[in-house]
Amino acid sequence: MIDFAAAVITGAVPLALAAMCGAITERAGVIDLALEAKLLFGAFAAAAVALATGSPWLGLLGGMAAGMAVALAQLGCALWLYADQVIVGVGLNILALGGTRYLLALLYHEGANSPELQSTFPPIAGNPIVWLAVAAAIAVPLALARTRWGLRLRAAGDRPDALVAVGVAPRRARLAAALVGGALAGAGGAQLSLSVYGFVADMSGGRGYIALAMVILSGWRPGYAALASVGLAIANQLAHKLEMWVDVLIVRELAHLLPYVLTLLVLAIWGSRRPPPASLGKP
């Protein structure tokens, strides 16, 4: 049971951090398809900095900085260059897939993985990324509801004209939201690489797209997005258990699909009950 809980937490943390990033950015009115890029660049930067300095703490900061850098590039293209926000997100994801492989070859002369880290965080209780995810799941919803930052963020997504009327540029509110979200997603990427002692090419494995589904499922509410991510992590671990318990080949293969089938079913039932922010995707 303890091993099961540990596996659920390990799998839920990067997904929950990416989902909270997506919820924050989209509540501010920016379509966030770049979650995969933030996770992947965050994972690479965390491993590279930890390898260079020998400190997983600096690796975590490097991962968060990488997530914020991707968010800056995303908003620069979408809001200042008026590029299509969906195309920007997909383009950044493709850049992350090829760019991290190029950096692996450039820095370590490897195409698939980085050298092994000699120092990393403890698995669960002593892992600061786990506690960061827990703190963010509590603090971000409170900040959205009760702070000036949260009020401006929600106004940027629903009523940007109201912000303009009081002399606040919606772009500034969206940029602040994207930076906070990027830091969270970058920390999620750091969890991916620091938990397995190094970076592996394409290690995000589509988690960014799954996190976006959690954002829609939660009705663009960060706390609920984090909870949905935990539920998906539980379903994923149950699928692994089913593979071990059942000897029928077809059932074992279908068990891989269980978490995603459940996600689609829940999205079909509940996903459309709460509308997206009124200005989502508008410059």
What is the element layout, followed by pairings?
Blueprint: H1 2-27, H2 35-53, H3 56-80, H4 85-108, H5 128-146, H6 148-158, H7 160-165, H8 170-194, H9 207-217, H10 222-245, H11 249-255, H12 258-270
Helical stretch count?
12
CATH superfamily: ABC transporter involved in vitamin B12 uptake, BtuC
Reported CATH architecture? Orthogonal Bundle
What proportion of the residues is helical, as a percent range?
over 70%
CATH topology: ABC transporter involved in vitamin B12 uptake, BtuC
Poorly predicted runs:
none
The largest β sheet comes out as: none
Task: Summarize, please.
The chain is mainly alpha-helical. It has helices spanning 2-27, 35-53, 56-80, 85-108, 128-146, 148-158, 160-165, 170-194, 207-217, 222-245, 249-255, 258-270.
What characteristics describe this protein?
single chain; 283 residues; mainly alpha; ABC transporter involved in vitamin B12 uptake, BtuC; 74% helix
